[in-house]
Design goal:
It contains two helices and six strands; from the N terminus they run E-E-H-E-E-E-E-H. By secondary structure, it is α+β, with helices and mostly antiparallel strands. It has a six-stranded antiparallel beta sheet, covered by helices on one side.
């Protein structure tokens, strides 16, 4: 999966030591994409809701989004901003072997 753009989130959270970004994807968020994020942390996927959403939590980052949206939100603790590269590599590797 290709990340086409990254922008700073409009939601302020820097006061708490977190920085959030909206990552835009080349394809809408699919069920397979969400399930493929499981190795990155604890996955919560509420698929039966009218607008199914997911959240992946790790000690120093959170990834969340809505099924069929064109973007996800990634929040990273300021002292661990380098973890964004780990997340980018994981997402970039998705579907390469499909």
């Amino acid at each position: 999966m290709t990340i086409t753009a990254i922008t700073e989130s409009r939601e302020p959270c820097a006061e708490a030591g977190w920085f959030a970004y909206d990552w835009y994807l080349e394809e809408p968020v699919s069920r397979d994409f969400i399930l493929a994020l499981r190795p990155l942390g604890s996955l919560l996927f509420l698929e039966s809701l009218r607008q199914p959403f997911f959240k992946v939590e790790n000690h120093y980052y959170i990834i969340k989004g809505v099924l069929n949206d064109d973007h996800i939100r990634v929040a990273v603790h300021r002292e661990h901003n380098d973890l964004q590269e780990k997340i980018k590599r994981h997402i970039g590797a998705l579907y390469l072997n499909a």
